[in-house]
Amino acid sequence: MQVSQDQPISSDAPLQLLLFVDGRPKSKQQVQRIRSYLKELEADYDFELQIVDVGQQPYLAEHFKLVATPALIKVHPEPREILAGSNITGQLKAWWPRWQAAMDAYLQLESDLHEHDENGRVKELKSSIRSVAVSAELMRLSDEVFRLKQEKEKLQEQIQFKDRVIAMLAHDLRNPLTAASIAIDTLQSNYNIEKGEFERLTPKMTVHLFKQARSQTKIIDRMITDLLRVGHGKDREFFIQPQKVDIGKLCLEVLEELRDRYTAKSHKVNKDIPKDLPNVYADPERIRQVLINLLDNAIKYTPEGGDISVCGLHRTSQKIQFSISDTGPGIPEDNRDRIFENHYRLERDQGKEGYGIGLCLCQRIVLAHYGQIWVETAPHGGAWFHFTLPVYPN
Ligand code: ADP
């Protein structure tokens, strides 16, 4: 008999046992009892016993699906048997004769499998006995394979996300590019070089086309700047974990969380979230933050009895748009870009509680999803925030 602790065993003992223990004093006493009982047993065969501390090798406990320690496992010969609970020695007494019988059957089978080849050389079939140490190593490896598989899935998801984003960006860039090209083409085709003037175009029309070309190229420039900001890792802490998200459902959950706040101010909340709004490819926790910040601001800056509206829209095949409007004071046109800066607050609102970081965070999150966020004046006054996100592919 071999009783080993800690060091790996490499004997060929046919009966292989694993004893799982933990660090509790009570458990130590039980283990002592089991070990001395095993020593007392009149064993006809060698056996190996390896002690495994679950604290040090939790993956082994997981592998054997153990729910309690100590536990004694017969790992060889098959089938595996697990004795657990407070009376392992009692159970062992009952099982021992059966394990011995299993040994007899196993050794008989093994001797039957030895055969001679034509040259008379003994061809010994590899013993199927694996030492406990080897099986432990195999389990560690299978654990590692599982971890790598999960990592691979995560990476594949991210590649898929990037593919979606590229499709969305290509689509987004094409719109202003087409508009700018049409304006430039129209100007070019109507320009008479010899006369140095635009024919068939009124001066008003000419100015409009120049403005159009300029504003569309500005939009393209802005999109590329945003893209580079994300790409250069300025927002590196924003590692998002995109997945399939039902944003309509998420938004309703957030509204429910904020119910106490808006009912306290007697706000009327209008929801226009189509049932067939597609899922988005996004990090649910991050998007929850965006929704909370925007709705929280709408509640904060809208006077009692005002209206707040939430609207979801399937903008293009690649993206959805979410809009949140209120009937508060709105954002003056000159400050519309600045309110997304860190710590920026309108002078008007310095007296209200807040740190001026909410919108900056929203922008960083939305940009990390390669979406856009902006603000306009709502139809009845008030602020009207919009943001876009990529659609989850079907
Ligand atoms: P905070 O609300 O904590 O000051 P934010 O970054 O969320 O910070 O907002 C920045 C500023 O933008 C606010 O200080 C406020 O002046 C203005 N603002 C944001 N949301 C609204 C809104 N819904 N209506 C009016 N002003 C707003």
TrEMBL record:
- Modified residues annotated as Phosphohistidine in this record: H171
Tell me what reaction this enzyme catalyses.
ATP + protein L-histidine = ADP + protein N-phospho-L-histidine
Q: Which residues form the Histidine kinase domain?
A: 168-393
Question: PROSITE patterns recorded for this chain?
Answer: HIS_KIN (PS50109)
- Alphabetic keyword roster: ATP-binding, Biological rhythms, Coiled coil, Kinase, Nucleotide-binding, Phosphoprotein, Transferase, Two-component regulatory system
SMART domains annotated for this entry?
HATPase_c (SM00387), HisKA (SM00388), KaiB (SM01248)
Which GO molecular-function terms appear in the entry? kinase activity
Function per UniProt:
Member of the two-component regulatory system SasA/RpaA involved in genome-wide circadian gene expression. One of several clock output pathways. Participates in the Kai clock protein complex, the main circadian regulator in cyanobacteria, via its interaction with KaiC. KaiC enhances the autophosphorylation activity of SasA, which then transfers its phosphate group to RpaA to activate it. In addition to its output function, recruits fold-shifted KaiB (KaiB(fs)) to KaiC to cooperatively form the KaiB(6):KaiC(6) complex (independent of SasA kinase activity).
Q: Which PANTHER family match?
A: SENSOR HISTIDINE KINASE RCSC, TWO-COMPONENT HISTIDINE KINASE
Which HAMAP family does its entry note?
Kinase_SasA (MF_01837)
Summary of subunit composition and partner proteins: Homooligomerizes. Interacts with KaiC. Participates in the KaiABC clock complex, whose core is composed of a KaiC homohexamer, 6 KaiB and up to 6 KaiA dimers. SasA and KaiB(fs) compete to bind to KaiC.
Name under which the protein is recorded? Adaptive-response sensory-kinase SasA
The beginning of the lineage is: Bacteria, Bacillati, Cyanobacteriota, Cyanophyceae, Nostocales
